[in-house]
Amino acid sequence: MGLKSVESVCMSxxxxxxxxxxxxxxxHQKVSEIIHIQKATPEETWKRISTRVLNPDLPFSxxxxxxxxxxxxxxxxxxxxxxxxxxxKSTNIGSLLExxxxxxxxxxxxxxxxxxxxxxxxxxxxxxxxxxxxxxEMSVSFSMPPNRILVDDPxxxxxxxxxxxxxxxxxxxxxxxxxxxxxxxxxxSDIAVIWRDxxxxxxxxxxxxxxxxxxxxxxxxxxxxxxKLGFEKGSAIAIDMPMDVKSVVIYLAIVLSGYVVVSIADSxxxxxISTRLVLSKAKAIFTxxxxxxxxxxxxxxxRVVDAGSPLAIVIPARGSSLxxxxxxxxxxxxxxxxxxxxxxxIEFVSVERPVEAFxxxxxxxSNTGEPKAIPWTVATPFKxxxxxxxxxxxxxxxxxxxxxxxxxMMGPWLVYASLLNGASIALFNGSPxxxxxxxxxxxxxxxxxxxxxxIVRAWRTKNCTAGFDWSTIRCFGSxxxxxxxxxxxxxxxxxRYKPIIEYCEGTEIGGGFITGSLLQxxxxxxxxxxxxxxxxxxxxxxxxxxxxxxxxxxxxxxNPLMFGASSTLLNADHYDVYFKGMPSWNGKVLRRHGDxxxxxxxxxxxxxxxxDDTMNLGGIKVSSVxxxxxxxxxxxxxxxxxxxxxxxxGGGPERLVxxxxxxxxxxxxxxxxSLKQSLNTALQKNLNPLxxxxxxxxxxxxxxxxxxxxxxxxxxxxxxxxxxxCKL
Length: 728
Fold this sequence. Notes:
Mean pLDDT: 92
CATH superfamily of the largest domain: ANL, N-terminal domain
Helix content: 25-40%
Oligomer: single chain
Number of helices: 24
Radius of gyration: 26 Å
CATH topology of the largest domain: Rossmann fold
CATH class of the largest domain: Alpha Beta
Strand content: 15-25%
Largest sheet: 7 strands, mixed
Structural class: alpha/beta
Shape: globular
CATH architecture of the largest domain: 3-Layer(aba) Sandwich
């Protein structure tokens, strides 16, 4: 489709897109009326067309014609969504600013939209006032309030021990208890969880709903049963399950009763499960007998057994009976709960813990081959909840869906961002790539839908959202991977151009460091703001931050004073990993992040992948070393491999490309398509069934440093520049 200005589009152009003449005439008339409004900017023209003319039933090519036609002379970063001044005042942050803007920002406060940047600056320069305000707005309840919000001792010793400061010293709190408390945000009759199982007639049945009263009762019962196991408070208990209503109940019960969740993704192979159980020293694990996906039944309990797990509590995937015999010593879900049946509906008093106590152990890949074991404290969940409140505008009455798993940080994030803010969690027990999921979004009346770009690509390719009404959606959230402009324009069009809030999170942060805001224009596949309470720096080639608001590209560093961020690792030196060798800014050592970011000329931010040897595949961070260890053993003709995440032309999620050096040069090269299949089989069996090799590239040798280290960054640049060689 050739680009032309929206003023130049004639009726025949619209007809050529397959739109009937009568409809084309009507559309052309509506567009003409809009573009003839005097003194309208390109942004205003697009806003009117997107909200008054476009709808999900029109061909996407017409959406593209209008979007690109409005902005043909605009330049880079055309906004796809603009805030409305009245709507902005009703958002969580807008309402706060309307009530307290002059108190917080002084007489310069004007309105939520024009004062947003000033409020962000305030949140960074006045962290104690900002975080006290947000925690109060969220009605966070402490059994023992903190002595103060932040202790930031400038002494050299303190900066070495606590470079990120000490948050909420002296406080005792239980985040799960806060999720279940009844207050102005939550009544016992309010809906806490909405769900549906995939398959069969379930798609046409009403969605299942659980009230807060029922959720509280079920969590209490599991908490009593956990205490019967006799573990010391603070012991680690793992969850390796699909994210369904039972796993949410179990998660909350573990935290409520003073234990620590160990998060393990249900897609992991036994070796990966074992690594996480060993690192966390888990005393027990909750799992299912199998995972049901449509007509398929996938093993789960057997993988947990093969991992050499401790005591397993096993839940049947469907019905009340397990599909297999349990290992000696393991417990069925029925027997686990039966021993405390007499406690049913009796409140379990939450175990209040000191603010530095652990609540969850999660894992993030490193470039060493072993995942980083990252503890969340009992304070970290409130960072997740605050991001949901501030940036995704989650509030009482919302229905929040985000296909994820408790093994990844967005699983716990979804629990806390929803329940702490009085919203309902919407869970689909099945594949999110299907029309069944699209119908669930409609039937559950989802108001905030979270995605990862690969899911959006599948929806668009399969057209599986067609015919479903997504008009209840107020905004989308997107995380996990770099997104693609056209795919996200398509996604916005499914809900009549509601905004997409790009959200870049970190397991070690407990939430996001850069995101979007409903008080700012949103540009496709770009971030508009560091998260409130956070600040970021783009390092120049000299390793020094480039001046604020100056366009540039470089490795990202973060302000160390981030509420909820990690202060320790179970299997590495936290200071060495995040602070050693980093530059200082205003007397503070910056926190290492590792992504390469760009600040554009219009002030947006774009991610350009990892600066180290870690990549992001389908929203999962994984080290090159782990992938190469598997690939090197696939064929005895392989001398060595290098695994690289390469961004495709036009942007989008990284694709796994494996560069291979053969022992005898190209004389003994295996057939590449066969080798690719073998590599995929090995990776999916030994690491993760979601990993997929996009291409195999034979090389005579790998680029190396003088000390013989593989220069994967150089290789990534070479493969990106020669994209046609790896079909990118």
